[in-house]
Amino acid sequence: MQQKTKINIIGAGISGLTAGCYLQMNGFDTELFEKHSIPGGLCTSWEKGEYTIDGCAHWILGTDKGSGFYNMWSELLNLKQIPFHHHDERLSIEVKEHADKYGSKVFHVYTNCEQMRTYLMDIAPEDKKVIDQYIHDIKVLQEFETPPLMDKLPLIPSIIRGIKMSRYLKLLFILLKQKKQTNFVLARKFQNPFVREGFMNLFDEQEVSMLVFNFPMAVFDQKSAGYPIGGSLKWSQRIADRYTELGGKIHYNTPVKKILTENDAAVGLLVRNDVIHTCDAVVSAADWYKSVFDFLDGKYVDDKILRLRDEKEMDLYYSVLLVTFGLKRDYKEQPHFIRFPITTQLESPCGTKWDRLETHFYHYDPTLAPEGKTVMACSFYTKNGQYWIDLRKNDRKKYREEKLKFIASIVDRLEERHPGIKDDIEMTDFATPATIYRYTNNWQGSAQGWLPGDKMLSKPPVGFLLPGLKNYYYSSMWSRPGGGLPVAINQGRDVTKYICKQFNVPFKTMKVEQK
Ligand SMILES: Cc1cc2nc3c(=O)[nH]c(=O)nc-3n(C[C@H](O)[C@H](O)[C@H](O)COP(=O)(O)OP(=O)(O)OC[C@H]3O[C@@H](n4cnc5c(N)ncnc54)[C@H](O)[C@@H]3O)c2cc1C
Fold it and tell me: Which of 269, 273, 446, 448 most suits a substitution to test ligand 1, by most atoms within 8 Å of the C-beta?
């Protein structure tokens, strides 16, 4: 019997797990090496007392039909067995200057396009043309299965495939058009000052391509972007279970130190306690920087990689300060996710300042807190995650003190907004960029790899290969700007297709029955 090709995978985040599943489906013999004691990487949750803190999924694209990602997740999971919560409102934004015609300063963003159209028309009938165009821009994205899975049709003659693919030229045109439309550009088209201010604040006063907003909106509208009840770790655990069912093996608590090479080909991994695991090929699904500059000592690089390292090619995605509270009341009357202005600016010791606070009440997930209680998280995005990483490394005492000070300043501002909330706090947790780095090794604590910016549609910044190195493949959220769970599964699937081609194996997938 011919021996199977042996592939060692680094990292049991969603990218590593999904790559592992698809490689197993295609007859490769894989083993996964993970530094942490649990699967999931960034897609995680943790317990503190009677509360569960969620570190990731507010929503996952493709949890039901109507998105190309559904086809992928259903190759790995029985989605019908997973309870999802679908939000009616994606977010609420309290604006500073103007109120709507009913006197409310809260701008609502509904997940249902028609509800959003009705809401906007009610407030701003004078802006009918802009509103119709805005809703159209979202709905037109629903005409396409994104990403298109053409491998589902292997027997279709190439000419028909060509015609099918040519439809996607239209999508490309739409994407390029929408890419130029930022929330600021769109906001300025509205005459109504309240709606204008609402759109200006979609991304916390930042200017971002509307595509970043519209693409998920198209999926929300189809009720295919649910939040998995039970939280992110359960989601990751389900994929880890699928991987082991397919015959894969996971080594937890096994940090990889080096990728071993011979004659410029990857031949194995050096892990904890200097144990060597040989193989025919390596897939790294761990942090991009670590993979290139630590595991391989920066020996296989080109100018582009060096520009990425020097942050001249792309901007890093923000890191996150995630402060979570366990509250002894369920706060069901509060919107699940609202961003509102604060009277005194909040400043982190890393130098980042915020004029707004966002509160995320998880009262829609009863599994995270005992009955009558809830979990509430405040997230803060920073470009200076490295400050926290260095502080924790160099001065643990100050790190702890700064954390406590930051929490206290948030509690003060929460108390202004919700008098009495201070007394309801039973649990406090603060995950800093140093926490992200400690548990996942992600460079500078980045939460989603690279920032999409205006490079969202350009060539992937990090390819499958490294120059001059054979039998090494790369696949993770760092492969595409914006990262996220859909990128992770898409990459895991695509890298498998690529490896299949290299080893002359016809790519195949196995659907899990959805019932
Ligand atoms: C606060 C927050 C909220 C988010 N919300 C969403 C959301 O709502 N929807 C969404 O789609 N995405 C969201 N994301 C992004 C999403 O979590 C990530 O993009 C995705 O999980 C990345 O998966 P990955 O496998 O590519 O990387 P990672 O999760 O970073 O996995 C890499 C794995 O490699 C392991 N590793 C690293 N170094 C080594 C080593 N030396 N040896 C062995 N193992 C190693 C790590 O421990 C980790 O398990 C969020 C992220 C954060 C931080």
Answer: 448
Helices vs strands, H then E, count in the chain: 16, 19
State the Cα–Cα distance between residues 289 and 197, nearest whole angstrom: 39
Report the 3 state secondary structure along 230-256.
CCHHHHHHHHHHHHHHCCCEEECCCCE
Decide if pLDDT at 153 tops 50.
Answer: no
Domains and CATH numbers, the chain: 6-43+233-314+451-502 (3.50.50.60), 111-221 (no CATH), 319-443 (3.90.660)
Q: Between the CA of residue 402 and those of 65, 399, 408, what are the distances in Å?
A: 46, 5, 10
- Give the E-state strand segments of 19-120 in sequence order: 29-33, 45-48, 51-54, 84-85, 89-94, 106-110
Strands 374-382 and 353-361: antiparallel
Q: Residue 90 is encoded by which pair of tokens?
A: 């994606």
Residue 211 has pLDDT above 90, yes or no: no
In the prediction, which pLDDT does 173 show?
78
Nearest to 90 by CA among 170, 203, 239, 246: 203
Distance from the alpha carbon of residue 189 to the mean position of ligand 1, in angstroms: 37
Rounded-to-integer distance, Cα 95 and Cα 111, Å = 19
pLDDT at 149: 65
Residue whose CB lies within 8 A of the most ligand 1 atoms, among 32, 42, 60, for a mutation test? 42
The tens digit of pLDDT for each residue in 58-102 reads 999 999 987 889 999 999 999 999 999 999 999 999 999 999 999
